[in-house]
Design a protein that fits this description.
Elements: H1 23-26, H2 28-35, H3 41-46, H4 66-69, H5 78-87, H6 99-102, H7 163-173, H8 183-201, H9 207-214
Length: 216
């Protein structure tokens, strides 16, 4: 059997004699926390619920927004219930609900007519395909070929009249001329070749061998 709660006199000041087993019923903060403890953004998104805090005021409102200021995401808590009661309290000067405006419903005028239905047929001229619109809704195609690695502009072909400029590019791309060989250059080339061959045939010590040599 469940034990009887302690008498009020045995508790401290400001405390109520409540049963901890029934904390869900009398502790509203505990109830709100237990309801939303294991909710995830994935499960809320699959049910088309909000996954981040949204303002319940129109866009551009710079005043105090309680749900944003106190980071209230879920609408089943005591904060949301208190705010709803304040909105419908005739003794308070509260803002009305802006849910219809946030949903995009025309609720400001007395006779809402909705969004204007503008014509769409024949508004944008095209060549018969919607992916090929005509000016001024698309870029015009020029008569000249587009610049790329295979197309040279005509303004750069002025060097064809100058044989010196025509041969300058070929001369720059050709291999540089070697100086005439002498006995000294032959001996130097032979010495360098012998040194390179000896370096390739030599033994390159490893890291362990270098460390062992240093530890001696």
């Amino acid at each position: 059997p469940r034990a009887a709660p302690a008498p009020p006199a045995a508790l401290g000041p400001g405390m109520l004699a409540r049963d901890p087993a029934d904390q869900w019923e009398w502790h509203e903060a505990h109830r709100d926390m237990a309801k939303n403890m294991y909710r995830t953004t994935y499960s809320d998104a699959t049910l088309w619920k909000d996954t981040y805090v949204k303002s319940d005021f129109p866009t551009g409102y710079a005043g105090h927004v309680p749900v944003v200021r106190f980071d209230v995401l879920h609408g089943n808590t005591a904060v949301s219930r208190t705010l709803q009661l304040r909105k419908h309290d005739p003794s308070r000067d509260s803002f009305p609900s802006f849910q219809s405006q946030l949903c995009g419903l025309p609720s400001v005028t007395a006779f809402p007519c909705g969004a204007r239905k503008n014509p769409t047929k024949g508004v944008v001229p095209h060549s018969g395909l919607t992916t090929d619109p005509r000016p001024p809704w698309a870029l015009t195609r020029g008569a000249l070929a587009p610049l790329n690695q295979r197309c040279t502009p005509h303004t750069i072909r002025r060097n064809l009249s100058s044989q010196a400029l025509v041969g300058a590019g070929a001369a720059a791309a050709a291999e540089p001329a070697r100086p005439p060989e002498t006995p000294a250059t032959k001996h130097l080339r032979h010495t360098v070749q012998v040194a390179n061959d000896a370096a390739l045939l030599g033994h390159m010590p490893t890291e362990s061998e270098v460390l062992a040599e240093q530890m001696r």
